[in-house]
Amino acid sequence: MKVSQREVLLFGQQSAVLAEELGRLLPGWRVVMARNVAEALTCLGHTIRPMIGLVHIGRLVTELQDALEDICAVVGVMEWIALVERDLLGTVPVCKFISDHCYDFHTLPLDAPRLAMTLGHAHGRAELRIRNSYQHIHPNQFNMVGSSPAMQKLFASIDKIRGSEAPVLVHGESGTGKELVARALHQNSHRADGPFVAVNCGAIPAHLVQTELFGHEKGAFTGAHQRKIGLIEAADGGTIFLDEIGDLPHDMQVNLLRFLQEKIIERVGSVQRIRVDVRVVAATHVDLERAISEKRFREDLYYRLNVLRLNVPPLRERCEDIELLARWCFEEFSLEKSSKVYGFSNKALQAMRAYSWPGNVRELINLVRSAMVMSEHRLIRPEDLGLAMTGMRDDRWIEVGTLDKVRGRMERDYIQQVLEMNKKNVSATAKQLGLSRSTLYRMMMKLKMNY
After folding, report:
1. Sign (positive or negative) of CA dihedral 250, 297, 151, 333
2. CA 198 to CA 245: how far, in whole Å?
3. Is residue 198 classed as helix, strand or coil in its secondary structure?
4. What is the pLDDT of residues 102-145, one digit of tens each?
5. Closest to 262 in 3D by CA, of 275, 272, 253
6. Structural contact between residues 385 and 197, judged by C-beta atoms closer than 8 angstroms
7. Distance (Å, rounded) from C-alpha 379 to C-alpha 346?
């Protein structure tokens, strides 16, 4: 269905006379009238897809606001121009409605030349917004969504180091997309045709780390019935991504250091030295410098891994991307959603922008996908996302305490919510949160949670 170039939707309960007058005074425009949301959606579903609309404002401003949200949820990008009697411009609700929802306003009676000019400007602005919206809703660089300065800085850094063979350490909180960064480095390097092997170091039982990473020969130990190729060897010619490297057992850090120095491995139960051509990208959400001071992480291994460093920003530091990510998620998982759900309400977007997102992008995706399935409204509301608006004032969340305390409280609430969803199963909860069991246990102890 093509976007019409010269059609405008006139919306309002008492607009029949206006529609006839507009049709006469604006010969370059086709005016389609709708007195309520049902008529508007019927028109939009069968005849037109205008980019601009005229809304005739009476005194029921609240109802108009909800109606415009419903219409825009179906149409998408649309610019509204208010048609209003001059005496209503002195009322606060009307002024606020125009300010919040309209590109411009036109006082009645109609002035055809002036209105035609306004429509032309609105049409041009809508075209720009459509192009901008399309570019940003889809992954725009390295298969990641983001236009904020923090993400542009990250993209520039990835572009600089993607061709290097030096080890890379990716640092960022859980849920920020560290594996996406590692995949971007691999897919945009000369190793792109080789394997990409991702390993969650914290998810492998300590007694199996050696054989999982380096492999073993048949008969190397009880139960070793056949040769096993380790994950490092499996990544030969490509990239190995060592996620949550901070959770690697201390005794295994020595073996990894030797591999980084020599690029040679030995399978368990073998004396054969095997040269492996692999680029190492490691990631962590923990403070490795602190882990070094506490003797939990080897300093020499840290310097071997931290040749090139990338910092992935948390979502609270890239607020400009929250709405883009939410809309991308809505589009990406559109086949899962309830048929009655068409988009986000303004209050939902406002609540998402105000929330601090302790679980970062992973949390946003989880909440949006859940709301898409469970919402019983045409537009997703804050309560569908679990983001009640009662804690807000002047478009901001009201929290008492330091930032660390607030973040800790939100992390605790979110982990508790996921635990309850998984019936207190820590393994399932850790998997859903993208954490190792040991990392989740440490977080729960730090947050003084019972389990």
Report:
1. positive
2. 12
3. strand
4. 888 998 888 888 998 888 888 888 777 666 554 445 556 788 98
5. 275
6. no
7. 9
